[in-house]
Amino acid sequence: MSKDLPAEDPLVRMQRDLKRVLKKNPKEIHWGMVIDIAKCIGCHACTIGCVAENKLPPGVVYRVVLEEETGHYPQVRRRFVPRPCLHCQNPPCTKVCPVTATWKTEQGAVIVDYNRCIGCRYCLVACPYAARTSDFGEWYTADTAELPGKLYGQKAAANGYEAHPAAEYGKKWPERDHGSPVGNARKCHFCLHRLKVGMLPACTTTCIGRATIFGDRTDPESLVYEMIGSPRVFRLKEELGTRPSVYYLM
Amino acid sequence: MNEKYFKTLFGIAGLGLIIGTVGLINFLVYGKSTLALGSYIPWGLWVSLYTFFLGLTAGAFLITILTYVFRIKIFSGIGPLSAFTVVVTIVAEIIIITLDLGHPLRLYRIFITPGFKSMIFWMVFFTVAMLVIYILETYYLLREDLIQWSQDPGIKNRKIYQYLALGRTAYSEEDRLQDQRRVHRLSLLSIPVGLFFYGSNGAVFAVLLNRPIWNSTLTPLLFIISALVSGGALIVLLTFMFKRDDKVIHLLAHTVRFLLVVMLILEFLHFFISYQWDVVYIVTALDLILYGPYWWNFWFIHLLLGSLLPLYLMIVYPDDSRKLAWACFFIVFTFIAFRLNFVIPDQAVYKLEGLDASYFHDRLRTTYVPNLTEWLVSVWVMSLGVLAFLLGTRWLPVIQAGRGEEEHV
């Protein structure tokens, strides 16, 4: 066996870090993420894992993987950059909300109160990373017999899977109709509902290349803290002064 | 106003309202999924229309200031008409932007859980303030005639005017002086409120660092000047149609001509400076405006029909009221092109490399064309505004109340 292979799966390390961190005073936790671009293979598992975890409807996506092709043949390469919400420490999106429906928590996650959001989409326009999406009320089962309400006696016929939103923010949301989160701005929230029960975010768990590292960025014992100290680290659009909590390794 | 023109306009607006209702019902029943907007271009036709209506208020706002604060008597004939125009256009503005919200019924939250750092909060605040000021101002300007109409046995439905007159049956000289003082004070108050009203609307766009086309100190100024151009042109048109006064038309049209030149210079500077930066995503957005699929919106509708043709008419025929009115007609009705060219192009450029290939869905694209539902609802709102205005000029003494003002209070 190669001596270069890690002795421990980073997921196991992160899980251990998380367990330790959750015992701390919540005010002392500051969530952060490091994404190693050198390890990302562009499989988009994190995108789909997030969509599945949060039951995201069509047109709503929290974590995309940017794909860039650079160079001229034969010196061409592709670069993959997963882009969740960067949970900026100086978020431009929270300032623009006219009803204070979005804010940065003490632990550094930028969240949205679906019941307060009026759907003006100013935060979407303000985000430099296009990390927010608006839920326009679309259905995967549109134009099919599976769409709830399409058939007489629909409850029996329709699958109903997408009629029941995921328990984002730990809340049970009503059946999908015109009510929230339809009409709201939606975004990555670091899977707070999973963190609450001691689980890592879905994108972190599902990453097959172990390119996504998550944890308390101020905990010196955590893997994410070590990664942030790497000389390869950078953040997107640093010149805007947003200070994202998501770091990248070149 | 000529009865034939009134009936024609009324007919067109009525037809527009009926046709637009189809789109409105579709939108109200099936929700936001009926729109062509997306998450990368979340602000489209309706936000552009909002800024268009905003612009239309400015000319009327200026007239009321000149008449009731600075006592420039020449405009006193169109004072009440101008105040009423502000009310109608602000209401139209509120309707279109409320429809654009994901949850319009939660709009009250702006006052319950306000975000003071948000420019939209201040925009709503000053919009409501302007509306309240101008509803009161219009009321006090019309009160004398409302009371007269309520007592005139020759007027049909006198009871409505009795309600509007709040039961008053007499109107003395003292009442007139008091109402004039109130109008003067309200107009005085409308100056700072109005400046913040127009400025905050520009600031909504200007404060966003990641939007280089909008993020400029020139933006609020461009908003104010462009509002005065479109609003001033509207007032010229309304004066020609409803209360023809050639002196007023010539004076206002010459002012609009000057402001139009200033606006074009500012617009040129905006393009020139932005091109000088030579940053790819800025140049891409500018190229979209000038050479993109909708190049004709800029060159043909905004520049040729909406700017150069009116300038030609206003320079070559400075004393022909009819031609000046036509020039202003072109300015007003093409101004939506200017607003669309401001709101959409910056959003139509991906701000992160590789975002276009990251996820495939119609709502995650930087191409946007307003669909039929959006156009129909827009037609509905515009028709409603025109009908409200026409009926207001018939059922309220908006025209009749414009008479010579006192020298000073």
Polypeptide structure, described:
The complex is a heterodimer of chains A (250) and B (409). Chain A is an alpha+beta fold and 250 residues long. Chain A has one domain: Alpha-Beta Plaits (2-Layer Sandwich). Chain A contains 8 helices and 10 strands. In chain A, a hairpin with a 6-residue loop joins strand 2 (64-70) and strand 3. The longest helix of chain A has 12 residues, at 10-21. The mean pLDDT of chain A is 91. Chain B is mainly α. Chain B has a single domain, classed as Formate dehydrogenase/DMSO reductase domain (Formate dehydrogenase/DMSO reductase fold, Up-down Bundle). Helices cover 71% and strands 0% of the residues of chain B. Chain B is built from 13 helices and no strands. Chain B has helices spanning 3-30, 45-68, 79-100, 109-112, 119-151, 158-164, 173-206, 218-242, 246-277, 280-291, 295-316, 321-343, 372-395. In chain B, helix 2 runs antiparallel to helix 3 (79-100) and helix 10 (280-291) crosses helix 11 (295-316). Chain B is globular. Chain B starts with a helix and ends in a 14-residue tail after the last helix. The chains are: A alpha+beta (250), B mainly alpha (409). At the A-B interface, strand 2, strand 3, helix 4 and strand 6 of A face helix 4 and helix 5 of B.
Structure summarized in a few sentences:
Chain A is α+β, with helices and mostly antiparallel strands.
What keyword list fits this structure?
heterodimer; A: 250 residues; alpha+beta; Alpha-Beta Plaits; 4-stranded mixed β-sheet; two-stranded antiparallel ribbon; 10 strands; 16% strand; globular; B: 409 residues; mainly alpha; Formate dehydrogenase/DMSO reductase fold; 13 helices; 0% strand
Low-confidence stretches of chain A: none
Q: Say what the CATH topology of chain B is.
A: Formate dehydrogenase/DMSO reductase fold
- Known CATH architecture of chain A: 2-Layer Sandwich
What is the N-to-C succession of helices and strands of chain A? HEHEEHEEHEHEHHEHEE
Calculate the mean pLDDT score of chain B and round it: 91
**What summary fits the major beta sheet of chain A?**
4 strands, mixed
Secondary structure class of chain B reads mainly alpha
Radius of gyration of chain B: 22 Å
Number of helices in the DSSP assignment of chain B: 13
- When the domains of chain B are counted, the total is 1
Got a strand count of chain A? Answer: 10
The proportion of residues in beta strands of chain A is 15-25%
The CATH superfamily of chain B is Formate dehydrogenase/DMSO reductase domain
